DNA sequence: GTCTATATAACGATAGAC
DNA sequence: GTCTATCGTTATATAGAC
């Protein structure tokens, strides 16, 4: 099984990634120039290029940080028995999504990032594993639509205007209850 | 109440919009150059600028086409009684989303379009009306999370990899059943 | 309505000094 | 590790002929 990078980035690289992700979320990857990232970090473009050879590498590194967390969650869940695994993944994925409310949408929907997710094999495998846990291995149309809805609803709901005033704890508990209900209720 | 444009665009403008929207959906607005739009239409950039003064005007016109359909749906629904209104909106919004599978995601998530939705008053009002019908006027946290999930789930599920092989009719019926269930089930 | 040609600005990326 | 300066390319947008 292919795994994501586990050795940590340098402090300089980590600062760049931390500055870039919120910009990607607000303006999109294509709407975020290296000048904007450099300004946010407080250095010049050349200093950024000393840490990353291309803009794509910054995008890749930023996505990798969040997907590494997802990988940890999946590993923990896959060690559990069937019904418990799904509940564990749901709980932790919701925690992740709520905690990073502003960022999830970019990772899930930005065209540049979507391309990365589709082309780079370790990312693809990670998504496959997530879907496998969500569907519980079932392949029927009903089950797949439920899983697709849950997957979209979590990422989309956390930054929805309708829930902007909810604190993290309230959002977390409502989301968990409703996603479980959506997955389990008999149709 | 502010309304969207009702007079039709010229044939030339309509062709440009039809060519632009799929490009916006695949590459994002910022990832779609006027050269790409011109190539898709089969003319030069200058010909495009003869129809629209700026790129923003093309984006605006493209979004307006889809939101005008949403407005029609909302008008029909608002003329109905309470419980029926929500079911009607859900049915028609799902039809719209499934029918334009590839396009919805851009309209819902592209940063440039999101800015338009937030800044231009008639668009904002339209979204408010949609949310009002989905929540049925209730303002509790549970109701708002449900509505946010439904709103995100419909747009996100229609182009989810898990349901790529489902035909429109199957996707439609599953989505309708499950969204109604998500909104109505007692928690 | 469409073309060729071009102005102007910003982009990603590199060279070389400190 | 950060800077100034710059290269080559592409972006939005315009001018003016047909």
Key features of this structure:
homodimer; 187 residues; mainly alpha; Tetracycline Repressor, domain 2; 75% helix; globular; DNA-binding
How would you describe this protein?
- By secondary structure, the first copy, chain A, is mostly helical.
- Chain A has one domain (11-184): Tetracycline Repressor, domain 2, CATH 1.10.357.10.
- Helices cover 75% and strands 0% of the residues of chain A.
- In chain A, helix 4 (55-78) packs antiparallel against helix 5 (82-99).
- At the A-B interface, helix 6, helix 8, helix 9 and helix 10 of A face helix 6, helix 8, helix 9 and helix 10 of B.
- Chain A binds a DNA duplex (18 and 18 nucleotides) through helix 3.
Outline the fold blueprint.
The structure is a homodimer of 187-residue chains.
Chain A (H helix, E strand, L loop, with lengths): L10 H17 L6 H8 L3 H7 L3 H24 L3 H18 L1 H9 L1 H9 L1 H15 L5 H17 L10 H17 L3
Helix pairs in contact in A: 1-2, 1-4, 1-6, 4-5, 4-8, 5-8, 5-10, 7-8, 9-10
The first copy, chain A, binds a DNA duplex (18 and 18 nucleotides) through helix 3.
